[in-house]
Write a structure and sequence with these properties.
heterodimer; A: about 375 residues; mainly alpha; two-stranded antiparallel ribbon; 4 strands; about 65% helix; globular; B: about 80 residues; alpha+beta
Chain lengths: ~375, ~80
């Protein structure tokens, strides 16, 4: 086995352990780490949406970006670059986020949900793989968002600086931010511990190029499974941890912060897989790339935060399954607006995929 | 015959270059960029030829390295 595989596996195990620890310390069930959920919580914390249950300045996002930033600076891998279709990436980021919030989780949370026995995540995985396959078809047909160019260090440092600012404000003036008193936003590990864990995970993810999309994409494109080891390592670690801790509950119905409206679980993750291939990485990877100087990924993160705000302002996000007073299952899912948004997302991704192709590849 | 590796700013550029090399009878295959060469997750081409074939590279080529028998990378060209 190559050395790099050990690195990816180690990073995957670390992420899995971090997710278990953060859940044990207070993060919502099966949500030790979720980039979509946590960016949505930050969007709520800064008042971009007013869904009272999902507002909290999540230190995990801040830590991931700053961990990647510090690691890339320490290893002289910080490269300030930008200019690869930033406006298109902003839109893609928004729809990837809407897809993730329809499913109720980014690809990382999908893996964590799988490790908790949530079978709805298997449906999500099918959609995710299908979305990646669609994206790979367009890559083979010549899809490109054009290259990025070297930019000033300041331009490449925007997201780390923004995250540092949020961290300082969160510590110095926490009353500035909205904070849920009930619901997922109210459940969180102690902030300082979450920050430190995320700093370590961010640094490891930068070193290992951890990406939930990259492994499946590379397997399809090159028959190379290197990055897939990280995906599998996270799943295995969370699965074993949940079995030991008694938190493994196999089934579809009433899973923690999940719904069993399967068509929309599937289609939501189609959007996430497809959009992430076009972007060149999953939501976690976008944070890490932005940390190591990629301004286009910073724009993508801002797009994802706007997508999260839109998902709650327009009622697009999934509602979890719940039990009513008679202890009967009430299946959650999404409303009409959410369904329209997912279909619109498919249309937008198709248009972006078709428009941004090098003709000399299509001609062959 | 030497072993070379070319890295690219875009996947499509690697795809086009692979076709060009193959059409010219050069054995070439695409792969993820080795971690040692980059923290990005882009696409590279591994190929065997007598010289680096720089003139056959598409516009978004980033680096060309010669791979030594000891698996060391010797930078020959860069387009940042």
């Amino acid at each position: 086995m190559k050395k790099v595989n050990y690195l990816v596996i180690s990073a995957g195990i670390a992420v899995g352990i971090a997710a278990l620890v953060l859940t044990a310390l207070g993060n919502p069930a099966n949500m030790g780490f979720c980039i979509a959920c946590f960016e949505r919580d930050i969007a709520g914390a800064v008042g971009l949406h007013s869904a009272a249950k999902v507002q909290y300045l999540r230190p995990e996002i801040i830590g991931l970006v700053l961990g990647a930033f510090l690691m890339s600076v320490a290893t002289k891998e910080f490269r300030a670059k930008a200019g690869s279709a930033p406006a298109t990436r902003f839109v893609l980021g928004a729809f990837v986020m809407i897809g993730a919030l329809v499913f109720l989780g980014c690809p990382l949370r999908m893996v964590i949900r799988l490790g908790g026995g949530d079978l709805n995540a298997v449906v999500g995985l099918v959609g995710f793989v299908a979305g990646i396959a669609i994206g790979v078809v367009f890559l083979k047909k010549g899809f490109t968002l054009q290259r990025a160019y070297a930019v000033s260090t300041v331009e490449g440092s925007v997201l780390p600086v923004v995250m540092t600012g949020l961290l300082i404000l969160g510590l110095a003036a926490p009353a500035l931010f909205h904070a849920s008193t009930e619901g997922p936003g109210s459940k969180h590990a102690p902030a300082l511990i979450a920050l430190v864990i995320a700093l370590v995970v961010g640094a490891l993810a930068q070193k290992a190029r951890l990406c939930m999309v990259g492994g499946i994409r590379d397997l399809m494109l090159f028959r190379d499974a290197s990055l897939l080891y990280g995906f599998v390592a996270i799943f295995a670690t969370v699965l074993v941890g949940n079995l030991i801790l008694g938190n493994f509950h196999l089934g579809f119905a009433a899973q923690p912060i999940a719904h069993s409206s399967e068509l929309w679980n599937l289609l939501g993750m189609v959007l996430v897989g497809w959009g992430s291939v076009l972007l060149g990485g999953c939501p976690l990877r976008q944070l890490i790339l932005a940390g190591e100087g990629n301004g286009d990924s910073a724009v993508t993160v801002f797009g994802m935060i706007l997508g999260a705000a839109s998902a709650h302002n327009f009622g697009l996000a999934g509602n979890p399954d719940s039990l009513n007073e008679a202890k009967e299952l009430v299946v959650g899912g999404i409303g009409t607006a959410g369904k329209i948004a997912v279909i619109l997302g498919v249309v937008v991704l198709l248009a972006i995929s078709l428009i941004n192709s090098r003709q000399e590849v299509e001609a062959k | 015959m030497n072993q070379y590796i070319a890295t690219f700013h875009t996947h499509v550029s690697a795809l086009i270059t692979t076709r060009t090399l193959t059409q010219n009878g050069i054995s070439a295959r695409m792969a993820p960029v080795p971690r040692k060469l980059s923290s990005s997750c882009g696409t590279c081409i591994l190929y065997a030829a007598d010289d680096p074939q720089q003139e056959k590279m598409d516009r978004d080529v980033e680096h060309i390295y010669r791979i030594s028998p000891q698996n060391q990378y010797e930078l020959l060209f860069q387009n940042l």
